Structures are given as structure tokens and as C-alpha cells.
Amino acid sequence: MSHVSKIKLSNITKKFVSSEMETHALQGVDFEIFSGDYVSISGPSGCGKSTLLAILGLLDTATSGQYFIGERNVSQLSVNQRASVRNEHLGFVFQSFNLIDELSVFDNVALPLRYRQVPLSDAQITQKVSACLEKVQMSHRANHKPNQLSGGQQQRIAIARALVNDPDVLLVDEPTGNLDSKNGDAVMHMLGELNKQGTTICMVTHDPRYADMAKRKLYLLDGVMADEFNLELAV
Question: Which SUPFAM superfamilies match (predicted)?
């Protein structure tokens, strides 16, 4: 693993305020993801995993603290700037697949490429999409619609779509949550293979078995980050 930092969080907090109460979802979270890393983040329901992933994915902003993607501080970007950085640097795999049923598999995977600031030619798009479908062994389904595929196949397509822009980091949210154990195991095996090929992965999961497949295991407890070495002290 190369010690080139892809993502760095420094003293990240997230506070939700309502008229009745103040909730501290994240409290001083610090961690780095390096090139070639495979990190799992787990913890009990309500521990802050989804909040952390939303901040990592620039879908939400922290209350305080610094967030760097590479050398760039992305803590204070506008909504449009966040969308641009997200499309350029981050790939997303969601529990619910989030594929568009009206589009073919090919067009679903191509979607992020059509939002690039620098447009690609049709030939470049075809080359990139084809390469990603091959990576997830779904080239033979390019002309199908998502609703013609099994859940496991849909998740493979979602992974291909997340990879198509060559992201710095693949953010994976409960990738097996909507799958049976056989398909879940197959998707997790695929993520492991992608990591061996060089893809940097940060995965949120509630399943300890899948969390253990990562190279580095991090835990969130009441909005505080603990690693596998000091978890017992934190509990």
C-alpha cells in the first residue's frame, strides 16, 4: 500500500440542532485513507456511520473540522463545487443500487461520464463503460434494463458505474444490505478483487464478517472513531 493520502479528515464534528435538542452525531473524527487502502467502518445502529459517509461523499458538510481530498481542502465548498469534486474524485456504491430502470445497463454505467466538466467523445465513453462492465463480469448484460437483472447483478452494475470515472476512492454503503448471503458474498469477493487491482475502497457495513474482509477496520461508537486496537478501551 502506498502512503499517498487520498482522503484526510481532521477533527470532524457534526451537530444536528432542533428546537428540543442538540445531537452530536460525530465528535472529533480523525482518519486518513491511503492509496490502495481497503477500509471498513462499522458500528452499532445510530453510531454515525451514515453521517460520516455523507460527509466523505460531499453529500453533507461537517459542522467543524477539515476534509481534504488529496491536497485540496473541500470543507467549505458550495453545493455546485461539491458536486463537481464528487463526480471527479469519488465513486459511490449504494445499498439500494440506485440504477435507473428506463436506461440500459450501458447507459446507467455511462451516466457519470456525461456530467464531466471536460466532455468525452462517444468512442471514449464506450471504451470506459466496456472496460468497467468487463471488470465486474457483466459485459453480456450491457443492453439489458436493470429490472431484468437479479439483485446481485444490479449491484455489480452499480459498482461498474462507480468505477467509470476512475475515482480516487470508492465509497461503499452497506453493499450487501439488499442481497441474500450468496450474492452478498459474491459482491464482497468482487470488491476484494478490485482492491487487489488497485482500487482504494472505504466501506460502511454493519456486518462484522464483511468488515473483517477489509485491510483496515475502523469502528464508530457514539460518534467517536476507534480502531481495532483500542476498541476494547473505548467500549
Answer: P-loop containing nucleoside triphosphate hydrolases (SSF52540)
